[in-house]
Structures are given as structure tokens and as C-alpha cells.
Amino acid sequence: MDYFDGALAVLIGTRPRLRVRYDPRDLSAIFAEMPQGGPLRVPYADLVQLPNSL
């Protein structure tokens, strides 16, 4: 599964370490803890893909 959000573009070339969390009941998005503070919801890159779970 690939995830994407345009807000991650500011991190290109900086190589930060981000804590990534997910809900095993709904893998349609992950949550990245941004360096500026606060979580960022990052959805599937392919929005046609249906929600999935573990």
C-alpha cells in the first residue's frame, strides 16, 4: 500500500525520522507525527482503493 499527502513535500531532502501510527481496523490512512508538531493524516495514494484491515 502506498500513502501520499502533499504536506509531506516540505520534508523532501531533509531525511527526518517520523513516528508513523496506524489503526489496524482501518488501513486507509496512516498518521505521521510531523516535526512542526501534531499528527498528519496521510491517506492511500490511490483513492480508488477500498479500506482494508489487518
How would you briefly describe this protein structure?
The chain is mainly beta and 54 residues long. It has strands at residues 20-23, 26-33, 39-43.
How would you explain this protein's 3D organization?
The chain has no helices and three strands. The protein is globular and about 30 Å long. The protein has strands spanning about 20-25, 25-35, 40-45. The protein has about 55 residues and is mainly β. Strands 1-2-3 form a three-stranded antiparallel β-sheet, with no helix packed on it. The two termini are about 15 Å apart.
Main beta sheet, described? Answer: 3 strands, antiparallel
Shape: globular
The DSSP helix count reads: 0
Number of strands: 3
End-to-end CA span: 13 Å
Unreliable runs? none
Round the Cα radius of gyration to an integer and report it.
Answer: 12 Å
Query: Strand portion, in percent?
Result: 25-35%
Portion of residues within helices: under 10%
Average pLDDT for all residues: 88
Along the chain, the helix and strand elements come as EEE
What structural class do you assign from the helix and strand content? mainly beta
Strand order in the largest sheet? 1-2-3
Question: Which descriptors would you attach to this protein?
Answer:
single chain; 54 residues; mainly beta; three-stranded antiparallel beta sheet; 0% helix; 31% strand; globular
List the helices and strands and how they pair.
Layout (H helix, E strand, L loop, with lengths): L19 E4 L2 E8 L5 E5 L11
Antiparallel strand pairs: 1-2, 2-3
